[in-house]
């Protein structure tokens, strides 16, 4: 049984901890904020020499979560300042050479516009153009991991599909929905393990367009974005097909990527975000799947169980600093402070708590 408002309170504590430790202005410029890459920060972090573009996108997404949990003018101001900080630090444009990075910022900006009324249409347009242009027929379709590369992977194609589907569902070009469907179909054809139903990482492509090698690593990140894409596309029609795929992913995660209902960690660095991303989209599955098909309530309950169990473990295994809780990269283990320095790891924990608080607000039970 979920205790009323307890999870919201925990998410608020995580929010304050990340803000107090990591948020700094960009080069002293008024009206800007970014998250330092580590805590305690060294000079590279304090001056934002080290710039993890996609970590900042998830920081922005977490602040949108916080605003939805409790809308305030102060939270809206942080969202505005983060958006400006990202643009200032990125120097020349809203995009970079990594299609996954660009898709994550696009998703965060779409949510900031819809939920917080912080609107950047030129940024959304630039990101949409970049993602549309990333599709090629090499290896049968899909977009690249980065420009001028030979690798196509789920971490780029998954968030791109979610972004394009949301753009279409919000009244944009219907062709973007077709692109999103084709992207997930490509993942299903080439990068899903027939044994577990889980997504592999990606594949390398010869210049001729033929597949050279498949990277069969199984990451929590990949399952999160594939699940999120299936759920988002399912909103727009033909839910049976898309929810079948979503249900398969939820079951696969429960059976292969969780221990006692707690999603497995993937270390620090970029891996610090992987489990949080999966839990974010498990929460969406828990909300949306029963709404689209009441006969699939058990799938929603299983997704909710994974969210709640992961959030409880992350909270119980935290360590404490003067500035607030520190989450570890593996929520099932007590946090070791040296493993909790990266912003990515703290965002993963915060994201997990916000996902649980979202389900709490909607009275979703396991």
TrEMBL record:
Gene Ontology biological process terms, A to Z: carbohydrate metabolic process
Gene3D superfamilies given in the database record: 1.50.10.20
One Gene Ontology MF term: hydrolase activity
Pfam families: Glyco_hydro_76
Origin superkingdom: Bacteria
Keywords noted in UniProt: Hydrolase
Matches recorded under InterPro entries: 6-hairpin_glycosidase_sf, Glyco_hydro_76, MUG_Protein, O_gly_hydro
Protein name listed in UniProt: Glycoside hydrolase
Upper classification of the organism: Bacteria, Bacillati, Actinomycetota, Actinomycetes, Pseudonocardiales
């Amino acid at each position: 049984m979920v205790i009323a408002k307890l999870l919201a309170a925990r998410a608020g504590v995580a929010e304050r901890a990340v803000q107090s430790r990591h948020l700094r202005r960009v080069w002293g410029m008024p009206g800007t904020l970014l998250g330092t890459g580590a805590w305690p920060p060294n000079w590279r972090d304090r001056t934002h020499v080290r710039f993890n573009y996609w970590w900042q996108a998830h920081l922005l997404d977490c602040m949108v979560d916080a605003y939805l949990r409790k809308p305030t003018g102060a939270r809206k101001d942080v969202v505005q300042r983060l958006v400006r900080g990202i643009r200032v630090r990125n120097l020349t444009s809203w995009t970079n050479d990594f299609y996954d990075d660009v898709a994550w910022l696009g998703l965060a900006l779409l949510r900031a516009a819809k939920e917080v009324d912080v609107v950047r249409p030129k940024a959304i347009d630039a990101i949409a153009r970049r993602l549309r242009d990333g599709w090629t027929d090499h290896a049968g379709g899909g977009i690249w991991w980065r420009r001028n590369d030979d690798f196509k992977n789920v971490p780029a194609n998954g968030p791109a599909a979610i972004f394009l589907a949301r753009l279409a569902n919000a009244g944009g070009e219907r062709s973007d929905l077709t692109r999103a469907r084709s992207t997930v179909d490509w993942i299903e054809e080439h990068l899903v393990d027939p044994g577990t139903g889980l997504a592999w990482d990606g594949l390398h492509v010869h210049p001729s367009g033929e597949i050279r090698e498949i990277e069969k690593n199984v990451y929590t990140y990949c399952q999160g974005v594939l699940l999120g894409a299936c759920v988002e596309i399912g909103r727009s029609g033909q839910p049976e097909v898309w929810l079948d795929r979503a249900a398969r992913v939820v079951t696969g995660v429960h059976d292969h990527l969780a221990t006692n209902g707690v999603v497995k960690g993937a270390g620090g660095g970029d891996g610090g975000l992987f489990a949080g991303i999966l839990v974010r989209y498990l929460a969406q599955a828990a909300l949306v799947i029963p709404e689209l098909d009441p006969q699939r309530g058990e799938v929603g309950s299983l997704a909710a169980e994974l969210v709640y169990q992961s959030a409880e473990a992350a909270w119980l295994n935290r360590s404490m600093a003067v500035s607030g809780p520190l989450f570890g990269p593996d929520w099932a283990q007590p946090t070791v402070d040296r493993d909790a320095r990266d912003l990515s790891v703290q965002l993963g924990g915060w994201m997990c708590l916000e996902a649980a608080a979202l389900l709490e607000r909607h009275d979703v039970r396991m």
